[in-house]
Amino acid sequence: MNEDRRPFKDYAARHFRWQCSSDGRVATITLDRPEKKNPLTFDSYAELRDLFLGLARASDVRAVVLTGAGGNFCSGGDVFEIIEPLTRMPAPELLRFTRMTGDLVKAMKRAPQPIVAAVDGICAGAGAMIALASDLRLGTPQARTAFLFTRVGLAGADMGACGLLPRVIGQGRAAELLFNGRAMSADEGLTWGWFNALHAREDLLARAESQARALADGPWFAHTVTKTMLNQEWAMGIEEMIESEAQAQALCMLTQDFRRAFEAFAAKQAPKFQGD
């Protein structure tokens, strides 16, 4: 049953930086076009989508950090490499593009690994959406997050924004940001639940990687179940939620990590999880 699994530690990224810890458990993706505040291109969209789809079969990576180089997270789609070509595309090509961007969000949500976004400086447009698609978000006091779609004459409904953002910060706050396109400050983001924590710029990446390491070294199979339930239960009624979680938790009780946790507790020791 493991024939399709493979290590991703030595993955050769083409349109961003990819680094893994020595044991391969924690991967860091760095959007690396700092001179333009790390915008996305057609190619980087596609590679990120394919990478997150592939991580479902990773035999090593258990947590992912997503960040940007040079004091900014991501400024969205590159104006001249994406926005300008879009103004000349016919409807079928435009739909293929918008579906591809949405496929990136879906791939991030479906990836079993928890994703920790380390957000500094500008986090705008599609950049804000990949931060939103992450499972945890750490920021700096300098972080500014904006869903800029209306600023370029588009709807705030992009890449799942109208469904995902209200679930994180609330309907009214999401409506304000999606209608106005204004930037959410770091303090607002922390108060509203967008950020899990704020850290000094020089500490941000280390804090994000520490969080990812804690997840990777924890009961990893159970973490994958938690992520699945967090995503699936949006569309469930209370009866379905409770039954789904009963089945999920019973499955986790069959793992060796559950037994290890009991044995460690009985021995008054800290558990050492292995993810099985």
Question: Could you explain how this protein is built, in words?
Answer:
It is built from 11 helices and 9 strands. The strands form 2 sheets. The chain has a 6-stranded mixed β-sheet, sandwiched between helices. It is globular, with a radius of gyration of 19 Å. By secondary structure, the protein is α/β, with parallel strands linked by helices. Helix 1 packs parallel to helix 3 (91-110), helix 3 runs parallel beside helix 4 (126-133) and helix 5 crosses helix 6 (171-180).
Key structural traits:
13% strand, 6-stranded mixed sheet, alpha/beta, 276 residues, 11 helices, 46% helix, 9 strands
Summarize the structure.
This protein is α/β, with parallel strands linked by helices.
Task: Give the helices and strands, then pairings.
Elements: E1 17-20, E2 26-31, H1 42-54, E3 63-68, H2 79-86, H3 91-110, E4 115-119, E5 122-124, H4 126-133, E6 136-139, E7 144-146, H5 161-169, H6 171-180, E8 183-185, H7 186-192, E9 197-198, H8 204-216, H9 220-232, H10 238-252, H11 256-266
Helix pairs in contact: 1-3, 3-4, 5-6, 9-10
Q: How do the strands line up in the largest sheet?
A: 1-2-3-4-6-9
Mean pLDDT: 94
Order of helices and strands: EEHEHHEEHEEHHEHEHHHH
- Strand % is 5-15%
Unreliable spans: none
Largest sheet: 6 strands, mixed
- Provide a count of the helices: 11
Helical content class: 40-55%
- Give the termini separation: 15 Å
The coarse silhouette is globular
Number of strands: 9
Query: Gyration radius, to the nearest Å?
Result: 19 Å
Helix- and strand-based class?
A: alpha/beta
